[in-house]
Amino acid sequence: MYAFEYKKAASLDDAKQAFDSADDGTYMAGGMTLIPTLKQRLASPSDVIDLGSIADLGGITVDGDTVTIGAMTCHADVAASAEVKKAIPALAHLASLIGDPQVRNRGTIGGSIANNDPAADYPGALVGLGATVHTTTKTVSADEFFTGMFETALDEGELVTKVSFPIPESAAYQKFPNPASRYAVVGAFVAKTKDGIRVAITGAGPTVFRVPEMELALTASFTPEAIADNTVPADNLNGDLHATAEYRAHLIGVMAKRAVADCA
């Protein structure tokens, strides 16, 4: 680990000032990605700005047909929330599957989506539910937020403040987890929303993506059998020591069918 200045921000303004005054600053939410990266000397920021004490960035609220989760809300709180379990059970279930108890009690929804690891779970929920990401400067639809592997629509120094999820008619999440990390080798989030059926896949490609062919088939018949013949080409999927691109293509169909079967 390289030497750096540690700063604990008390407010969003405090965080911005610290970032703007740093030579090469970086924000830290839960630190689940940043700390291992620093320990492996894969990054050498001049300043690490801790967001953990900014009260405005935490909390869960349900207002009408929307669930809003503050960026610094940890996965364990989402998984345990009675409000989330009632409004969007699939979202609470997804949060309960992330990592292990240590990760769930430190990792945050804002940190996860800002990092946009291709195997992360939350991007599937955001795109699957048609969520909206609120930042310090703008609001962005989930469909436009995740732009590529480890890339998002965030500008330099911009922070996620909260995420708003429309409450669906029904939804479910199924994933094939890496047995060591619990990251998604492939995860499928399927939702019936007021705007139609949405199928979001995480873990399989460079970033989360939707499968329009499955959405169309499920609109005609919302059954696992309706998408039995739908396939996703392996050409642009990830391949690594955990799974080949072809195996991930197969898993997309398996996980999507299981998610449809689980939808209430």
Question: How would you characterize the overall build of this protein?
Answer:
With 264 residues, the protein is α+β, with helices and mostly antiparallel strands. It has 2 domains: 46 residues, Uridine Diphospho-n-acetylenolpyruvylglucosamine Reductase, domain 2, CATH 3.30.43; 205 residues, Uridine Diphospho-n-acetylenolpyruvylglucosamine Reductase, domain 3. 33% of the residues lie in helices and 25% in strands. It has a 5-stranded antiparallel β-sheet. β2, α2 and β3 form a beta-alpha-beta unit. The longest helix has 18 residues. It is globular, with a radius of gyration of 18 Å.
Distance between the termini: 48 Å
- CATH architectural name of the largest domain: 2-Layer Sandwich
Mean pLDDT: 97
CATH topology of the largest domain: Uridine Diphospho-n-acetylenolpyruvylglucosamine Reductase, domain 3
Strand neighbour order, sheet with most strands: 4-5-10-6-7
Q: Spans with pLDDT under 50 lasting ≥5 residues?
A: none
Please compute the radius of gyration using only Cα atoms.
18 Å
Q: Total strand count, please?
A: 14
